[in-house]
Amino acid sequence: MPAEITRAPLAPHKERLLWLVAIAFFLQSLDATILNTALPAMARSLGQSPLKMQSVIVAYSLTTAMLIPASGWVADRFGTKRVFMWAIGLFVLGSVLCALSPSLGFLIAARVVQGVGGAMMLPVGRLAVLRSHPKGDFIRAMSFIAIPGQVGPLLGPTLGGWLVEVATWNWIFWINVPVGLFGIWATRRWMPESAPVLQRQFDGVGYALLSFGMVAISVALDGMSGMGLGMALVVVLMVFGLASLASYWMHALRVPEPLFAPVLFRVRSLRVGLLGNLFARFGTGAAPFLIPLLLQIGLGLAPMNAGLMMLATVLGSMLVKRIAVQTVQRFGYRRVLQVNSIMVALMLATFGWTVPGQPTWLLLLQLFVFGGFNSMQFSAMNSVTLKDLDGEFASSGNSLLSMVQMLAMGIGVALAGALLSGYAEMWQADPAKSLRAIHATFMTVALMTLAATLVFSQLDKDEPVKPAPDGGDA
């Protein structure tokens, strides 16, 4: 069905709709950053080791990755307004369940509920804005709603540390409730109705194969950290997960309307960008989980002080965002991504040398520089992945990129958790085993990040470079 038919008339409350979708962006970006600083306090409250709390993050990332491919179809089938309202409702429900969690298992299940809502909020919100704004106004609209998404990471670490000190970790979830309830009310009032539009048949078999593959591999990696899964089950899950992904690929080659068309992968920049995202985020995706552990468990900082220190990373990221496009235009994607991957790996390795008593200014400088290189990596990776897609492939490619981002982030955290657990057991008799395990994990993920350099070397050397939209730091 032509796109002109599915686009709704201009909404009477366009500006209020932008604020509504911006609230959803803020909720998710805040939740993604406020949790990391509170993990050690949550571990103490739930009687767990702070080095084995990665499942709380993995559960959310994996759920989001699994549901992103279905979000557009669900919105077309049931209407953007209804789906967006249910997405916020599930996010609020998940937040309440997280706040009330009496055990780690309950908390992980609650994070899955939260992830279901989060997976639908952002893509459906973007779709509502697209259908309510003319093409010429869409870029301005998306720029506006992206601003709160940048404020969330700025507030999250410090707010999380402050809430842990003045109250309890439960409040990092309670604060989502009033904002979410207002979002539900505002959706009913301001979001335009959109008639359900079923543009194509949903590839349920392909979705099941892809989802099972992602879940099985991620759970197997998480199980390597000793979260109750025996080694035999880990191996079985890994084998079936890989078999499921291979089966999806063969399925996609023979059905007329697969979830992601194999023809997408004929675009060289997309292939390299997706694989580069995957391998680079195995390392960088673990950083938001590892850095708060280093600051609190390794260096003994209070939660709020650790959160304040994390602001240096955000400031470095925001500063580099202003020059990312010009840097890529000057040096080209291949050179920028190869050199920057090495610099990100080196900065991750420097955290493996951080010791108690180190000057505060030096630690702040490490965090600031790491944030800058990390931001450059995300901007260049996302841009090169999508820059050669147009027409019918642009939306599908964007969904595929979002799925790979969340999957890689979850796998990165799962791998970091497995490494922490393994190194801690290796140095069981050492009184400083936690710090040594954190140091060794940083060095290992730094080495893993270097693998992305090999992938980005496959980009065309003399490829013409043109400005492309910044994909953000998702």
Automatic annotation (TrEMBL):
Keywords tagged on the record: Cell membrane, Membrane, Transmembrane, Transmembrane helix, Transport
NCBIfam families tied to this protein: efflux_EmrB, PRK10504.1
InterPro entries: EmrB-like, MFS, MFS_dom, MFS_trans_sf
Protein's membrane topology: Multi-pass membrane protein
Main subcellular location of this protein, as a coarse class: membrane
Location within or outside the cell: Cell membrane
Entry keyword Repeat: no
Domain Major facilitator superfamily (MFS) profile: 17-464
Species lineage: Bacteria, Pseudomonadati, Pseudomonadota, Betaproteobacteria, Burkholderiales
Presence of keyword Phosphoprotein: no
Protein name: EmrB/QacA subfamily drug resistance transporter
Residues making up the signal peptide according to the UniProt record: none
TM region(s), chain numbering: 56-76, 83-102, 141-159, 171-190, 202-221, 227-251, 301-324, 336-355, 400-424, 436-456
